[in-house]
C-alpha cells in the first residue's frame, strides 16, 4: 500500500478509538509525521501498526498509556530514531517542489497585485521594471530565510505535540511568527538597493510565470507520489 | 544507554526473532506470544525493535489479510535473520550456564 492509501485508511480507523486513546495516539501521529526527513511509507506503516495494536488493546480494555507507556514523547522519539531516512532522490524532488511552489506563489501573488492595481484602480504601470541584480539577490536571500522560518514552525509544532498549550498563547505565537517573518521579507525587499541591468516586462508576465512555476511544483508532487 | 537496558534490548531482540522463526506474526500477536511466555515487556516496546530488525534485514514485513479480517503486517525471518538467531542462541548458551552457576553458588 502507498503512503497516501495508508493515510486515508488511518483516518478511517482512528474514528474507532475512544477519546482518551485518540488524543494520545494523535499526538504521536503528528509528532512522527513532522519528522519530515524520514521515509513516508515506513512512517505510515508503523503508524498503522501502532493504531491496529491500540485498537485491539482497546477492545481488550487497555489504554494507550498501558500499551505505549506514560512517556509518549520518549516513545515517539524511539520510533523516529529507528525509522529509515527518506531516499535522496525523493528528498531532492521534495526540495525542488518547495522551490517551485515558493518562487511560483510569490511571483503569482506579486503579479496579481500589480494586475489588480493597474486594471481595477488605474494605479501604477502596465510594465514592470525588473532590476536583474536585485531580483536575483532577493530570491537567493529569500530561500534560506523562508527555510529558517518554516523549519522554526515545524520545530515548534513538534515541541508542542505532547504539551497542553492554551489556544490564546498558541494564537499569539503564530501571530508573532507571521509578523516577524513578514517584517524580515519586507525589510529585505524595501532596503535592497537597485542594481544590475534592468528589463521591462508586461505585468501579466510575472503572474503567468508564477502560475507556470506552481504547475511545475504540482507536477513534481505528482511525480513524488507515483 | 545503560548496560541494563542494552542487555534487555538484546535479549528482547533474540526472543522476537525466535517467535517469528516459528511462524509469521503481526505486532499484536507477537506481544501476546511474548506475554504468554511470561516476558512482561511493555507491549509498545516491540515496535522500535521490529523497526531495527527490519533495518538489519533480519526480518521482513508483508501486508496480508488476517483471520479476523483487516490487512496486517506479518513478519517473517530472512536468511540473515536465521543466522542472527543462531548466533543469539549460541551467545545465550555461552552466558546462561556460567551466570546460573555463579548465582547458584551465591545462595
Write the layout of secondary structure elements.
The complex is a heterodimer of chains A (226) and B (107).
Chain A: H1 3-14, H2 19-33, H3 40-59, H4 64-68, H5 72-82, H6 88-121, E1 127-131, H7 132-160, H8 167-191, E2 198-202, H9 203-225
Antiparallel strand pairs in A: 1-2
Helix pairs in contact in A: 1-3, 2-3, 2-5, 6-9, 7-8
Chain B: H1 3-22, H2 27-36, H3 46-55, E1 59-65, E2 71-77, H4 79-106
Antiparallel strand pairs in B: 1-2
Question: What can you tell me about this protein's structure?
Answer:
The complex is a heterodimer of chains A (226) and B (107). With 226 residues, chain A is mainly α. Chain A folds into 2 domains: 3-82; 112-211, no CATH class. Helix content of chain A is 77%, strand content 4%. Chain A contains 9 helices and 2 strands, in the order ααααααβααβα. Chain A has helices at 3-14, 19-33, 40-59, 64-68, 72-82, 88-121, 132-160, 167-191, 203-225, and strands spanning 127-131, 198-202. In chain A, helix 7 (132-160) runs antiparallel to helix 8. Chain A is elongated, with a radius of gyration of 23 Å. Chain A starts with a helix and ends with a helix. The model of chain A has no long low-confidence stretch (mean pLDDT 90). Chain B has 107 residues and is an alpha+beta fold. Chain B has a single domain (3-106), classed as Arc Repressor Mutant, subunit A (Orthogonal Bundle). Helix content of chain B is 64%, strand content 13%. Chain B contains 4 helices and 2 strands. In chain B, helix 1 packs across helix 3 and helix 1 (3-22) crosses helix 4. Chain B is elongated, with a radius of gyration of 15 Å. The interface between A and B is medium-sized, with 22 and 20 residues.
Question: In short, what is this structure?
Answer:
The complex is a heterodimer of chains A (226) and B (107). Chain A is mostly helical and 226 residues long.
